[in-house]
Amino acid sequence: MEQFREAALNDQPQITDNVETGVSPFDAGARPTPMMEQYIEIKAANEGSLLFYRMGDFYELFFDDAVEASRALGITLTKRGKHLGEDIPMCGVPVHAADDYLQKLIARGFRVAVCEQTEDPAEAKKRGSKSVVRRDVIRLVTPGTITEEKLLDPSEANFLMTLGRVKGAEDGHMALAWIDISTGTFRVSETASGRLLADIMRVDPRELIVAEPVFHDPELRPVFDIIGRAVTPQPASLFDSATAEARIKRYFEVAALDGFGQFSRSELSAISGAIAYIEKTQISERPPLMYPEREQEGSALFIDPATRANLELTRTLSGSRDGSLLKAIDRTVTGGGARLLAERLTSPLTDPGAIVMRQDAVSFFLGEQQLAEGLRAELKGVPDMPRALSRLAVGRGGPRDLGALQRGLEASRGIAALLAGCNLPPELDEARAALVALPQDYAEHLDCALDDELPLLKRDGGFVRAGYHAELDEMRALRDQSRRIIAGLQARYMDETGIKSLKIKHNNVLGYFIEVPASHQETMTGSAEAKGRFIHRQTMASAMRFTTTELAELESKIANAADRALSIELAIFDELTNETVAHADAIRAGAAALAVLDVSAALAALAEEQGYCRPMVDASLAFNIVAGRHPVVEQALRRQAANPFVANDCDLSPEGGEKHGAIWLLTGPNMGGKSTFLRQNALIAIMAQMGSFVPAGAAHIGVVDRLFSRVGASDDLARGRSTFMVEMVETAAILNQAGERSLVILDEIGRGTATFDGLSIAWASVEYLHEKNRCRALFATHFHEMTALSEKLARLANVTMRVKEWDGDVVFLHEVAKGAADRSYGVQVARLAGLPEAVVERARDVLHQLEAGETSGKADKLIDDLPLFSVEVKREQPKPKGNEALTEAILALSPDEMTPREAMDVIYKLKELAVKRE
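== DNA mismatch repair protein MutS ==
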């Protein structure tokens, strides 16, 4: 590959670029060459982006861009000439493989400015030998604005988010707007500094755009530091709320925004910033975005960032999709369905009525399994129509995108027919109506126009079906069958003139011509009719050459047939693209309907496969889970063919005359299943409110408005926070924000500090949850002293993870039962973990002394001379007599290694030991 690039750089005509005839664009000198001047000027206008500078068949990068790109892409860094006395670093990527390299750069957080030639090199030559072909940036490629199929994960949305802030605004001073340019989704919602990070993490944008003053605000900077490279500061003018309305109306070509709804000034600022950034990155293209849709505050379950991470909803703590809740419940068969499922999972509803509508859709497919299977079979063949539409709208689409729309519309017709006559619940009925409303004339037009086999790029041609366009068919025939057409014309002339030796030939001077023997001159020129038709071109010694108007026109058509055929196809492509964009709203509505059908049928398949139940979700404060299971752990155990998951109940509902939910204080050993039990109840609540069935025998959940979870330990050394400090910060957030409709999951609060400090903090936290927050909560702890709180706090109940001891070991039953644990079994767990036996024995000894109170006030009573070695000495005492000696002898046997004779000998020896014991 490198040698081809070398040739491209040195062979100026091949580059179709450099008209500095023979002058290297990299020559050193007092001032840069014209080409380098152009590069420096374009680069200066696009600071912060790697500049892909088009030179022939390569995008070249120079200076620091080349150094960064070569390191990120693992490609060779070379040098070309000098600039201001120093070598110019350079690297490049082939144009045809640019998407692969862009994918790697975008994944690493880079932004790329794509610079193309914007004029024909021949035009540049007319301006003079020193002129450079005009170039300009045609697009800024950023993580939040990509549309290419290769660069996008079909199962994940690709959101660009903007933060708008208007200080002093009466109706809220901050708002977030987010766009998926690949599908046209556009939403906006107000936010506040206290929940800003949670609202951002809920959407999980690939890029967050903020005004420069906001970026440097000390109050918000910690949030941006957590998000990292995804945050991009931009000029404040992009977010100006005074000009926002005009920008929005101009983009959507409307006279007023009343039809969009009512927006606050901060929301208008965020919307305007998003549109301005899209215009900046897409240059001359305008993606067909949906109208901004306002999300009402409180319409989605609030999940704080720590909870979202701890519960591993879409990614595990290590960043993997495997092991997440999303992976465990995803049975969708389309990209749009997978994205909608992820959206529902990360933004569960708080409106019981809307939740019930989703549940009704799942229930319908559970009751109509044959229909559901047929639907899912049809959906498997549905391409990603919204993303194909977006690529076509911004000029980056190809024939296969049109083909994707054609197949999608055809499949939609079949699915609508499949659902016809069914008594569908409201959500599914709306989806069917959207499919029926898809433009059939447009679908038929695509079917008529597009060939069965489509090329990747429109410039390759060959994507228009034969018979669709008469002139195109003629040009293709001329291009592909010119010899046969010339032979047919020759045969006709032979018949008309009666000259059997007439030939139509071709050379580089005359082109196509008719040649006859000189003896037939009279036939060709003897009559006025012949003279008018056959035009003399050349006389040879033994032959004469003629042409005709028909042959001349045919020659011209043959010469230009390929170019003309491609030109016609490109015009048809543009016509079809314009028609596609005109139907954008209907196509997106149909695609959204397919996603709803996919998610509903997929959740039904999940419920049937895993034995999930339909939860009752209402506006009460109930939280009663019967035989609940952890959806991820349960499936992992099945894959491993391990013991089945142990189901457990959880009832935090108000009891008797209580007006608030209960708190369960959960004690028990490590590895007993406390964390699993805590997480599974939080996950069940999320699944219920996203509209899914849940892993339980039965469930009644009063809508949870805020979910908090503090499970697991981690530090944040980058911000100077120890594990305990992180624990306290997260606990503080819970105690300051939880309300009576909240669900709080807390695990081992206070374990990161001294025992009495930790116990005090945990004790006070439980009291605060009970008296002030008054929420439903699960609180796991090793501080057994806290079980005494149940006598003081009316809504607090003690529960424990059941265990059994057997021959000095502990057996975990993973069952939750009423009552309290009297010990933690830490030493037994340490033994199971493989600690040296000497350490385990010494730990038992110390534990017994502590429990017996033998060390009250005096730590030196625990000190023995080399206690670990004392344990070893005890283990090396003379072998015991009697029963113990006989037992040890038996345990020392290895039957698999013994011959029959050796086994007989052992029996005699064991008998001798038994006699001695007597």
